[in-house]
Amino acid sequence: MADYDAQADRPTPAEPELSRAQLAADDVDLHVGLSGVAGIVAGGRGVVDVLHDIAQFAAQAIPGVDGAGVTMAGSSAGTLQIQAWAVTANFVHEIDTVQYHELHEGPCITCMQSRRPIVSGSLGSDHRWPRFGGRVARLGVHSALSLPLMVADEVIGAINTYSHDRDAFAEHAVRLATQFAGPAAVSVCNARLLADARDRTSRLQQALVSRNVIDQAIGIIRARTGVSADEAFDRLTKISQAENTKLRVVAERLVEEAVRRARARQRS
Question: In terms of pTM, does the model score above 0.90?
Answer without folding.
Answer: no
